[in-house]
Design brief:
mainly alpha; two-stranded antiparallel sheet; 6 helices; 2 strands
């Protein structure tokens, strides 16, 4: 989403953000997709082939995204991210045709106040969740929040 929003640029700092994010969020996703596929006996041969193909494309696009980030090529990053998103949506579509996925029901309503939302969402991993002020324009924590 950040790639298409224009917030990330083709520079060293943003390339590091993309590489770290994809590594943290997608490490093991391909292997998990393979495990789910292997443990899905309700799938037809055609569905299995389609899901396996989507899993392969997803892995290829994640690799392409990492490569594009290393080369600082923003358009290639956008293309790879979009293609990976389409591949995982296709995979989930095939799996959910045989195994209905439960509807998402949020467990809590998040605040519209940015500081409160950050504390709720990230908990102790955020400055706000630790009771500290976030330094303006950074992810660094400052002094305790004054009430």
């Amino acid at each position: 989403a950040d790639l298409n929003s224009g917030r990330l640029k083709a520079n060293d700092d943003d390339a590091i953000v993309v590489l770290r994010t994809i590594t943290l969020q997608q490490s093991g996703t391909g292997e998990l997709m393979d495990k789910v596929l292997a443990a899905s006996p309700k799938l037809t041969a055609e569905q299995r082939t389609r899901a396996a193909g989507a899993a392969i494309v997803f892995g290829q696009q994640v690799a392409s995204l990492k490569d594009a980030a290393r080369r600082r090529e923003l358009d290639a990053q956008k293309l790879a991210a979009t293609s990976a998103s389409v591949a995982i949506a296709d995979y989930l579509g095939v799996i959910s045709s045989a195994y209905p996925l439960p509807a998402f029901t949020p467990t809590m309503t998040y605040s519209s106040d940015p500081a409160t939302f950050t504390a709720q969402y990230f908990g102790l991993f955020s400055c706000e969740g630790q009771g500290l002020q976030r330094l303006p324009g950074s992810n660094n924590c400052g002094e305790p929040i004054k009430k």
